[in-house]
Specification:
- The protein has one domain.
- The protein is built from 2 helices and no strands.
- By secondary structure, it is mostly helical.
């Protein structure tokens, strides 16, 4: 079998074409894997965000009750006016939040 320049060029063309097809297929597979990983990362971030928001709401609830206790303590000491008004607003907020109403 005699190998001339046309045969070498044909073999090189086939190898080049296969390499190009392989590179495109590899890039496509990597792209789909990246998209899957991003989807998982987004789901994990959403889950973490929900947990963080719940923790913040719990802390805000505790702080609201603490402020209310402080205001009631001030009222017992004889402070009136803005203290009484603030107690009313905090209690109204707590009741509306408990029933899911807007302020």
């Amino acid at each position: 079998m005699y190998i001339d320049s046309a045969t070498i060029i044909t073999i090189a063309s086939v190898i080049g074409a296969l390499s190009a097809i392989g590179a495109v297929a590899y890039k496509a597979i990597k792209w789909f894997q990246t998209q899957e990983q991003q989807t998982k990362d987004i789901e994990n971030l959403k889950k973490q965000e929900k947990e963080d928001i719940k923790e913040i709401k719990d802390e805000m609830c505790l702080l609201t009750y603490a402020v209310l206790a402080c205001l009631k303590g001030l009222k017992e000491q004889g402070c009136n006016g803005p203290v009484t008004e603030a107690i009313g607003k905090v209690e109204k907020h707590i009741n509306q939040a408990a029933h899911g109403q807007e302020t």
